[in-house]
Specification:
The structure is a single chain. The chain has 198 residues and is mainly beta. The chain is 6% helix and 45% strand. It has three helices and 19 strands. The strands form six sheets. A four-stranded mixed beta sheet has the order 6-12-11-8. The chain is rod-shaped and about 120 Å long. The N and C termini lie far apart (99 Å). The model has no long low-confidence stretch (mean pLDDT 96).
């Protein structure tokens, strides 16, 4: 065998390059010494131009997002946390994840890939110590024990980050503290209980 891109009986399309190439097969008869040759055309197609930009950061507790932006349209996405064209941050886990976009040209059957990153941000770590029991006729209890400071409290009897025993009534109540990290934009919440005695 001989021709552009042929070496040791193998045709290397990368070596030949894009275009139509003529490959030759030459045979010599050992008994007569006569030779003959035939040829065939081989077309090497170019790869499709594929691109994928980086994705916006996402919090680990966010809902899944549909992946988009890969061109040409019609390819497939793969990578950590990717299922059926959707990205699941909790499945991917915290960190920078590489998303691969693969596209196959329907005309040539040739495939190419590009990749982009998506960073999964961790949730802020919260602490909310136990709350001491109060009497139903007691005054407002300022809620400020949870850390980091700067979040909001909610629940029965809670108003402006204060717990009002008379408004809540008798019983044990769950107080929720929600905090949003200003650097990552990720929110987390934690609960603690308070008992109102008669």
């Amino acid at each position: 065998y001989s021709g552009t891109g042929v070496s040791n009986g193998q045709f290397n399309p990368q070596l030949a390059g894009v275009g139509t190439h003529t490959l030759f097969y030459t045979y010599s008869d050992s008994q007569t010494g006569c030779s003959s040759i035939d040829s065939v055309l081989v077309t090497v197609s170019s790869l499709p131009q594929v691109s994928l930009a980086n994705f916006a950061d996402i919090c680990v507790n966010a809902d899944s997002i549909e992946l988009a932006g890969g061109t040409p349209i019609g390819g497939t996405y793969s990578g950590p946390g990717v299922q059926n064209g959707y990205f699941f941050p909790a499945l991917a886990g915290v960190g920078v994840r590489n998303i691969v976009y693969t596209y196959t040209s329907p005309q040539t059957g040739c495939s190419n890939v590009d990749s982009g990153t998506i960073e999964v941000k961790a949730l802020p770590v919260l602490s909310f110590p136990a709350l001491a029991a109060v009497c139903v006729n007691g005054g407002a209890v300022t809620l400020n024990a949870a850390t980091p400071a700067g979040g909001t409290y909610s629940g029965p009897g809670v108003n402006n980050n204060a717990f009002l025993p008379q408004q809540a009534g008798l019983g044990t109540f769950t107080i929720t503290y929600t905090y949003t990290d200003t650097l990552t934009g990720c929110s987390n919440s934690i609960t603690s209980q308070i008992t109102v005695n008669d």
